[in-house]
Amino acid sequence: MTEKKTPLHAEHEALGASMTDFGGWQMPLRYTSDLAEHRAVREAAGLFDLSHMGGLSIAGPQAARFLDHALVGSFSALRRGKARYTMICAADGGVLDDLIAYRTGDEEFFVVANAANAETVLVALLERAAGFDVQVRDVSAAQALVAVQGPRAAEIVREVLQDAQGTDGAAFDELKYYACLGMRFGDEEVLVARTGYTGEDGFEIWVAAPHAVALWRALLAAGEPQGLVPAGLSARDSLRLEAGMPLYGHELDTTTTPYDAGMGRIVKLDKVSDDGTPVEFVGRDALAARRESAPARVLVGLRGTARRPARAGHAVVQPDPARPDDVAAALQVGTVTSGAPSPTLGHPVAMAYVTPEVSAEGTELAVDVRGRAEPFVVVPLPFYRRDRG
């Protein structure tokens, strides 16, 4: 299968990026070093190309009611200019993808899907649209998505974009977290959202594909004096891991419900549509039953007390007190879903599904790292939380 390229592919090559396949796309893994890019986002700002993400337009008189039916969240109650993190589930409650939905108008929403799942989400939404006065369109190819993440993100974006209302940045300055705003890049309309996947303040900007290069270069130029650097997928992954954010295919998949992943709060079992009618959404019955049942596994954070990191797929074990270093004598109690050294915290961190009996904070466990029991302790998620000042 031919790998797809974003409108910014030539820019990445010109910057010397190491490229990799991700969800069928050629994407920058890193430009200089994983550590330098990670630290730039924590201390200043990083610029990411996210144009591989799926973009879906949902429009029509029953757009909100349709999303109430199709997704686990409540969208009739979502105000214009706001965003919501949500999931699309199968009838059995398994997660097909995690999404962000933006209400861009009274009858218009914009839904962002993960790159590898974009086609799955589109097909599911089209099937679920039957009987609703709504149009579901894939607009991914017409747009590019770039993100500026980090403590200096706001001042960089403000220098490059202008308020659509000509209010000299006042509307942008008032933009709250998980909200979106129409702005301008020169003569071009763009959609700006104060969302992100790094644990830092940041902005995601949708622009028409033909203008992506100009926007990318303008942000690089404006951000360079502030310490902004282009950042690749490797830094994005270590940043989201520190922030305790799930990655589809690791913490989320079709065998996992939102409750398994500790995200039952986003499931609105008793939601009603904008006219007060109770909503029966796809997966509701299975999710209601799951909420009332005892969990078979719990997603936890693990802090390494030695230096060797755990990686996805490694077994989490409860050592035999008589032979604490003997992995063969240990009882497997879970599996690591994501793991890496934490550049910010200076020790290994991991997320893992474990049995409820060993999920309490402070529980001492181990991870089988190439036949050696490496010590870890259960800690709360996220591992890192920014100072919101």
Say which CATH homologous superfamily of the largest domain is assigned.
Probable tRNA modification gtpase trme, domain 1
* Strand numbers in spatial order across the main sheet: 11-12-13-14-10-4-15
Global Rg: 22 Å
How many strand units?
21
**Structural class label:** alpha+beta
Number of H- or I-type helical stretches: 9
Q: What is the CATH C level class of the largest domain, in words?
A: Alpha Beta
Low-confidence stretches at least 5 residues in length (pLDDT < 50)? Answer: none
- Give the ordered list of helices and strands: EHEEHEEHEEEHEEHEHEEEHEHHEEEEEE
Distance between the termini: 48 Å
> According to CATH, what is the topology of the largest domain?
Gyrase A, domain 2
What's the CATH architecture name of the largest domain? Answer: 2-Layer Sandwich
